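Need tokens for this chain, all 188 residues.
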Amino acid sequence: MVTTSDIKKGLCIEFNNDTYYIVEFQHVKPGKGNAFVRTKLKSFTTGKVIDNTFPAGHKLQDVRVERRNFQFLYNDDTGYHFMNMETFDQRAIQADLIENAKFLKEGMDIEILFHAEKDIPLSIDLPQYIELKITYTEPGVKGNTATNASKPATTETGAEIRVPLFINEGDIVKIDSATGSYVERVKQ
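Here are the structure tokens for all 188 residues:
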């Protein structure tokens, strides 16, 4: 059990029969009345963000979580398959737990957040930046760079992204996994 004074960003709690983590919080002490804590909670199961206010001193049920290193192997009809890098056990995880699963590349190392007591995966954290090879894109037209023009491109994982006109097939690009946007071309 934790109280509102223990609340911090990233804390995982059980609330309304669901598991949430705290995205944002603010301790408020108004001139009149009792202190309280405003929070934004994100559900691990639905992904929804809710606002909630807890009175000062309110007790919350905290959840013990563990981060484990896994390697992505492949995906098929049963889900995305990962191998634990310490025990070499394999797990199949459904696509709805993975944000931007289209950027997963075979052999990629990732972290999976587990509920420690129930041993169920809560979320999958991709690296912030992912380097992928461009397998298809239209050639850029010379002299068409007066503005920040971009064109569609397909990566080696099949993901469609927007890239600048100077990117060609075979180039390796760095992509922000959170937004799915182009960051820079990687020198080979």
